[in-house]
Every structure is written in C-alpha cells, then in structure tokens.
C-alpha cells in the first residue's frame, strides 16, 4: 500500500540569508511540491537569494534546507541534488564560441547525464525551447531571447526533479512567453518548478501556486485565483491593471502593515 503522505521536494525551516549587513531572507519557512510555483516580490525582496540557496550555489546563513529527500548540509546529498536539479540564474555565463548544442551538452556533462543518453537529451531540450533550427549556431550569434531559451534548455537537459528559474521570461517576446508558459505547465506535471518573475501574466498562466516575498519574509501564499480574489475582498479594485496585480499589491500592503489572519497571509507552509 502506498503512503498518502505528501512529500515535498523542497522544505526549508528558519532560512536566513545575510549579505554583509543586509538580511535578504529572515527565518523563512516554506515547502514546495510537484507543480509550478511562482515567486513574486518587489526588487530586493529576497527571491534570488532564496533561489540561489535552493540551487546550492549559496549557503544559508542559518536554517535547515531539505531538497529531494535530504538535508543539503550533507555534502554527499548536496552532490546528488546538483545532478537532479536544473537552474537558470538571472544572469548566466556561457562561452560565446560554443554552439547551442555544445553549450547544452557541456551542462549535461556537468550534470552527469549518462554519455549514451546525452546527445538525444541535448536535442530534446533544445527542441523543447524552440531552438532546434539554431542548434548548431554559435551562442554569440543568437538574440538575447534566444540566449535565454538556450539557458532554459541547459536547465532542463537532465530532466530535473527540481527546476529553479530566476526571471526566465525576461527578454522573451510575447509569442515565446506563451510557448514557455506551456512548457512550464508540462514540466510542472512531474517536477517541482520554482519560477521567479515580475510578470504577473506568467503567474496567472502557468503557476499552480504563488508565493509573494516581501522584505525577506513570506507575504502571501495561495493559488493565483485566491491572490486575484484578494483585491476584491479588500475593496482595492482601483489600482493595478489586472486582478492578480491588484491582489499582489494588496498582499504586500497588508504584509508591510503587519496585518495577518486570513488564510494565506504570511503563511509559511
Ligand atoms: N551579494 C550581495 N551583497 C550585498 N547585498 C546583496 C547581495 N545580493 C543581494 N543583496 C541584497 O539582498 C537583498 C535581497 O536581494 P535579492 O537579489 O535576493 O532580491 P530579489 O527579490 O531577487 O530582487 P530582484 O527582483 O531585484 O531580482 C537586497 O537588499 C539586495 O540588495
């Protein structure tokens, strides 16, 4: 008989991240399971700091971080997690003289994708981001949006169980964003996908859950639908361009004024 207990791929407790004197995250508790999770928040809220800890590229200042079934403070588990996750940083480095194929193959090698499977995995990842016709083009000849899509391809080449994307839609044109959101929904059927974005349309179209970060803390968690409904509840129909944007503004306003109480407010599940 299988257990009915839901297992979260990401479970963090009391996560604090400090950069010198700045507290980027302040004792945050959060967990994420299979699905697409949107991370929203103003500039400097702490989204990138959170994603970098989850990607195991930055150590927490304090707190416990469990990813894919184990604590990442254990070096052997951390190494295993690195093979099983995908990460698109906000700004990522690449060798401009590499072709898209070489770039994605290099990342597949770093992730220890088995040699026999790597060529097909690279072609599949590149096709999924719509770059199949440019697979043998040098990265330096690509447009900004295409480079970002190559970045998404390298993040998914190992079929990650945990996918971390820091502002993946920056620089994509509207048609590419629509395609990308469909890809996100597909990936979220089997993986835990965490996407930081400033575009509420991404959240509305692709995310099963949204987490709003404000001032290094969790300001709100809920479905995009529940976030959109907040503005109406709060009688705040007069600002923002669409319901999610209004809900987002209301969530942050309540968070800043220290209001709590209703489901979702500052709920660090
Ligand atoms: N390397 C660093 N050194 C000093 N301060 C930092 C560093 N990285 C981040 N910070 C600070 O930590 C806080 C959180 O930054 P973070 O980049 O996590 O926010 P963010 O929500 O991703 O913002 P944005 O939406 O602008 O990308 C900010 O006050 C930022 O200035």
From TrEMBL:
Keywords, alphabetical: ATP-binding, Nucleotide-binding, Transport
InterPro entries found in the cross-reference section: AAA+_ATPase (IPR003593), ABC_transporter-like_ATP-bd (IPR003439), P-loop_NTPase (IPR027417)
Domain ABC transporter: 10-240
Superkingdom, taxonomy of origin: Bacteria
One Pfam match: ABC_tran
Cross-referenced Gene3D superfamilies: P-loop containing nucleotide triphosphate hydrolases
GO molecular function, one term: ATP hydrolysis activity
PANTHER family in UniProt: ABC TRANSPORTER, ATP-BINDING PROTEIN
Family: Belongs to the ABC transporter superfamily.
Protein name per Swiss-Prot or TrEMBL: Putative ABC transporter ATP-binding protein
């Amino acid at each position: 008989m299988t257990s009915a207990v839901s297992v979260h791929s990401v479970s963090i407790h009391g996560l604090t991240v400090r950069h010198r004197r700045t507290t980027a995250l302040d004792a945050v508790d959060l967990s994420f399971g299979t699905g697409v999770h949107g991370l929203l928040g103003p500039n400097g809220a702490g989204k990138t700091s959170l994603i970098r800890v989850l990607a195991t590229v930055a150590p927490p200042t304090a707190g416990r971080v469990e990813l894919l079934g184990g604590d990442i403070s254990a070096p052997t588990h951390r190494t295993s997690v690195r093979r099983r996750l995908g990460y698109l940083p906000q700004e990522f480095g690449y060798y401009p003289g590499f072709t898209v194929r070489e770039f994605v193959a290099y990342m597949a090698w770093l992730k220890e994708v088995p040699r026999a499977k790597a060529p097909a995995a690279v072609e599949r990842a590149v096709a999924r981001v719509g770059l199949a016709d440019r697979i043998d083009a040098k990265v330096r000849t690509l447009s900004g949006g295409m480079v970002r899509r190559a970045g998404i391809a390298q993040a998914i080449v190992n079929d990650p169980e945990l996918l971390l994307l820091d502002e993946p839609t920056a620089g994509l044109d509207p048609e590419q964003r629509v395609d990308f959101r469909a890809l996100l929904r597909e990936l979220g059927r089997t993986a835990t996908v965490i996407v930081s974005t400033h575009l509420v349309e991404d959240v509305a179209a692709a995310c099963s859950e949204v987490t709003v970060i404000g001032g290094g803390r969790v300001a709100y968690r809920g479905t995009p639908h529940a976030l959109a409904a907040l503005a109406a509840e709060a009688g705040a129909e007069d600002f923002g361009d669409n319901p999610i944007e209004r809900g987002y503004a209301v969530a942050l306003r309540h968070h800043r004024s220290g209001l709590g109480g209703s489901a979702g407010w500052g709920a660090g599940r």
